[in-house]
Amino acid sequence: MSAPLSLSAGFIDYLPQLLATNEHQAFLDACAQPPKKSIRFNRLTTSAERHGEIAAGHGWQLQPIPWCDDGYWLTGEESPGNALEHVAGGFYIQEASSMLPVAVLQRLWHQQHGPSTPARVLDMAAAPGSKTTQLGSWLAGNGTLVANEFAASRLKALYTNLSRCGVGNTILTNHDGAIIGNALPDWFDAILLDAPCSGEGTIRKDAKAFANWSLPAIHELVATQRRLLESAFKALRPGGLLVYSTCSLNTLENEQLIDRFCADHGDAERHDLRPLWPQLAAIHHPQGHLKIWPHRFDAEGFFVAALSKAADAAQQPRTEARLSPRFPYQPLSAKEQLQCRQLAADSQQLSLPEGDYWQRDGTIWLFPEAARDLLGRLLTNRPGLKIGEIHGRELRLDHDAAIVFAPLLQRRIAVNGEQARAFLAGQDIEDDAGRKGDWLLCYQGLPLGLARAAQGRLRNRLPRDRVRQTTIADHDS
Questions:
Q1: Less Cβ around it within 10 Å: N or C end of the chain?
Q2: What is the CATH number of the domain that holds 425?
Q3: Taking the alpha carbons of 97, 101, 106, 109 in that order, is the dihedral positive or negative?
Q4: DSSP H stretches of helix in 213-279
Q5: Quick one: 68 and 88 in the same domain?
Q6: How far is Cα 174 from Cα 163, in angstroms, rounded to an integer?
Q7: How many Cβ atoms sit within 10 Å of the Cβ of residue 372?
């Protein structure tokens, strides 16, 4: 049962500008309802055929979310955060409305480009990672996904969620998004800007979301949102696609901001999103945006708009990219790359993909496509996927690489639920099969992490920051 709503006088005074008087009580009543449980299955690790099987194993009933093929509302006694499949990256706990922006980007892209996926994608405000992992699930390892987060304190959660979900084609950057347009003009094929906002739509899970609401604070947010939108549009290549979203409901952060932006940019083309889901009239906006009001559609509040940059937009000048002398990575030669891949085949029975391999302090990294062009322009927190370390004639895989390449690994051991929970708590597991070397432990086909077989035991190689005494995990909207 939800806590009573805390409403500021400023919000009460502003409500008539949002809704007709006869909708006020219905809106407030809907906001007071408890949030609905919803999850999004991760197609990098879980096929659509397994959705019902996993749900049945936990006694959940699934109701499809209309805009996300992998998303469901669920009912049942057990919390999804307690499920081993969640810890193993089989699904992400994500509010249904939060799935809408990436779904819009995906549908519009496929309308314009067929089954292909964009080569260069930016999530400008990425943490803690719900939409970034959704983008990664869609891209399926193809292209380059740049996940930018301004707050350094939130990078760890972003990285952990990407790792858990097996998203390996990602570059993590830590910048004010407002600088990216100047650093990488006309660079990205597709951009998601889920902008920092007042959060009015999240009141179902935060009854105090309106407690400190004020117009001066909204105007400050709008200034930030406009700076980010300007930067995102500058970073978008001609013909590229940009989705702007907020979990706010007021027009200042949403409709009015988009109207002013389009009026100032003749090369900005607004998309009518209503034909994407013609049956969902309750979330259609007269200007072609999508807007979820909790009393009109039973979900948290959200706003989504989409813009393209005209294909004939003037090209912007770009400075030459130059790596800092302090950049700690060095590219592997073609011969070194071949040797590294041969070690993986010999010691792990793993066929590593061809790509752009680098080394740092004895560790091997695989950088996503187009990373070299980006590296001289943005400071990176993680420039790619850590593959592992070479020990003699063995390539010892890193945890992240094992999760990403799990479908390709031949050295796998299936464990039961009790063993999986023990492993996730950092414990070793007894093994009488006479195995040696590193093995990937899997639960119901989902990768948990690596263990080193020796002397009748599977010695736990789970990174220390992933060890947990409980399988309850964080989630976000």
A1: N
A2: 2.30.130.60
A3: positive
A4: 215-235, 255-264
A5: yes
A6: 17
A7: 15
How many other CB atoms are found less than 10 A from the CB of residue 349? Answer: 12
List, by residue number, the catalytic residues.
Answer: 247
Range of the domain at 463: 411-467
pTM: 0.96
Q: Is residue 415 in some structural domain? A: yes
Encode the chain (477 residues) as per-residue pLDDT tens digits.
Answer: 556 788 889 999 999 999 999 999 999 999 999 999 999 999 999 999 999 999 999 999 999 999 999 999 999 878 899 899 999 999 999 999 999 999 999 999 999 999 999 999 999 999 999 999 999 999 999 999 999 999 999 999 999 999 999 999 999 999 999 999 999 999 999 999 999 999 999 999 888 888 888 999 999 999 999 999 999 999 999 999 999 999 999 999 999 999 999 999 999 999 999 999 999 999 999 999 999 999 999 999 999 999 999 999 988 888 877 878 789 999 999 999 999 999 999 988 999 999 999 999 989 999 998 898 898 899 899 999 999 999 888 899 999 999 999 999 999 999 999 999 999 999 999 998 889 999 999 999 999 999 999 999 999 999 998 897 544 333 444
Distance of alpha carbon 60 from alpha carbon 147, whole angstroms = 32
Q: What is the CATH number of the domain that holds 297?
A: 3.40.50.150
Q: What span, in angstroms and rounded, lies between the C-alpha atoms of 167 and 136? A: 6
